[in-house]
Specification:
The protein has 13 helices and 22 strands. The chain is an alpha/beta fold. The chain has 2 domains: 267 residues, Aldehyde Dehydrogenase, Chain A, domain 1; 188 residues, Aldehyde Dehydrogenase, Chain A, domain 2 (3-Layer(aba) Sandwich), CATH 3.40.309. GO terms for molecular function: oxidoreductase activity.
Length: 479
């Protein structure tokens, strides 16, 4: 921890908060304080904004190849420091080291992907239909951006936003989640080492998000907001962005259905369920939330899933052999406890787990519930924990209707061996992404995002850079 930056990163320099404030960073496995970091206020946010605005014009004119090479160097540094970054992430967030190493690789890949996209920004040329003008289309950076990242994937959500912004030629103010600021500060140090010019990336760690972000959004100099977090906070940020007509990208909550048909390969389905549910201890917007299992296979599926979930080892993420680390904090664990208790009160049967262990830390055991009442609170709430809630269905139309009966639409999972049904059901689901006979959809080369109240825009893939670019049309008379 001694080598990890703990100050704000503004204009290429490490600085304390203007008022000297600091905030604690806790270890969710023990509840102990890891360190204190600078706690930014409005003056610090203004300084970060000014640095980003001052750097924007020169950065926008920087050659695409130069931007590409900075991202490539940063990618290589991240890969070289996988263990160091994984230990840092496990300390502040709790996930097991194996998962943390996986996230480091995932995070690095966004930088490699967008290093390649930086040199492929193009426009267009043609003659307009009336023959009077030529049309020249160019693409240019949208301008200074505010990037707000969550705590559940503290490194990857940073690179998923920073990568396309750098590639497009945008400067940034990054506000990481207060629970996990260290990964973002380490990332800023890596980018500085990789040659990113001063002021292009500025990082403000803060426990005062409203005081820091609202003035930036309403002030008119920030031209782009990219946010990953809850739908409730997303709505608030959209309202704050309206005054200055700030362009927005929103990756919000999910309530993913996981559908197992009677013809599904149950080995594949259980394997997929373990990934879709237990990745990141269930603390993921893509986590399977509602398990709809055909009546004819629900008993066998539930038995197998409970057996697999019950075999997972719970403990501190740094301990060898641990599969499931702590939840992020006591508030997160308390929410899971309340949701499980409500489901049980409504008649759900606990196949495994369901009891909070004694001792320090924010641990909760992998839990499988069957016979869940559709009116249970966990049916219309993001669980964000290691709880699989199983319901039954008999008919395809019925399960599609129930799967779509939610304001969210991020991802859905479908398990069936019938090609026609697989395509038909996938097309009927009101989601931005579908995992077909797989529990993992996230990939830097694929467009990530949802519909309905799960967000606006897409991150990653070839379209990920589009969120940070504007078109300009130039009319040139013919002849």
């Amino acid at each position: 921890m001694t080598d990890t930056p703990t100050q704000l990163f503004i204009g290429g320099a490490w600085v304390d908060a203007a008022d000297g404030a600091t905030m604690a960073v806790d270890d969710p496995a023990t509840g102990e304080i890891l360190c204190h970091v600078a706690d930014a206020g409005p003056k610090d946010a203004q300084r970060a904004e000014e640095a980003a605005v001052a750097a924007q014009e020169k950065w926008a004119r920087t050659a695409p190849r130069a931007r590409s090479e900075i991202l490539r160097r940063a990618y290589e540094i991240i890969v070289e420091r996988t263990d160091e970054l994984a230990h840092l992430m496990t300390a502040e967030m709790g996930k097991p080291l194996a998962e943390a190493r996986g996230e480091v690789a995932y995070a690095a890949e966004f930088f490699r992907w967008f290093s390649e996209e930086a040199v492929r920004i193009d426009g267009g040329h043609g003659t307009l239909p009336d023959g009077r003008n030529r049309m020249l289309l160019s693409r240019r950076p949208v301008g200074p951006c505010l990037l707000i990242t969550p705590w559940n994937f503290p490194l990857a959500m940073g690179t998923r936003k920073i990568g396309p912004a750098i590639a497009a030629g945008c400067t940034m103010v990054l506000k990481p989640a207060p629970q996990t600021p260290l990964s973002s500060l380490a990332l800023a140090a890596i980018l500085k080492e990789a040659g990113l010019p001063d002021g292009v990336l500025n990082v403000v760690t803060t426990s005062r998000a409203g005081e820091v972000c609202e003035p930036l959004l309403r002030g008119g100099r920030i031209r782009k907001l990219s946010f990953t977090g809850s739908t409730g906070v997303g709505r608030l940020l959209l309202a704050q962005s309206a005054d200055a007509v700030v362009r927005t990208s929103m990756e919000l909550g999910g309530n993913a259905p996981f559908i197992v048909f009677e013809d599904a390969d149950l080995d594949k389905a259980v394997d997929g369920a373990m990934v879709a549910k237990m990745r990141n201890m269930g603390e993921a917007c893509t986590a399977a939330n509602r398990f709809f299992v055909h009546t004819s296979v629900v008993e066998e599926f539930g038995r197998r899933l409970a057996e697999r979930m019950g075999a997972l080892v719970v403990g501190p993420g740094t301990r060898d052999g641990v599969d499931v680390g702590p939840l992020i904090d006591r508030g997160g664990r308390g929410k899971v406890e309340e949701l499980v208790a409500d489901a049980v009160e409504r008649g759900a049967r606990v196949l495994v787990g369901g009891r909070t262990p004694e001792g320090p830390g924010c641990f909760y055991p992998p839990t499988v519930l069957t016979g869940v009442d559709p009116g249970s609170r966990l049916m219309d709430t993001e669980i964000f924990g290691p709880v699989a809630a199983i319901l039954t269905f008999d008919d395809e139309d019925e399960v599609v209707r129930r799967a779509n009966d939610t304001p969210w639409g991020l991802v859905g999972y479908v398990f069936t061996e019938g090609l026609d049904r697989a395509l038909r059901v996938s097309e009927r689901l009101e989601v931005g992404m579908v995992g077909l006979n797989t529990g993992l959809v996230s990939n830097p080369a694929a467009p990530f995002g949802g519909v309905k109240q799960s967000g606006l825009g897409r991150e990653g893939g070839r379209v990920g850079i589009d969120e940070f670019l504007e078109y300009q049309y130039l009319a040139v008379p013919v002849g």
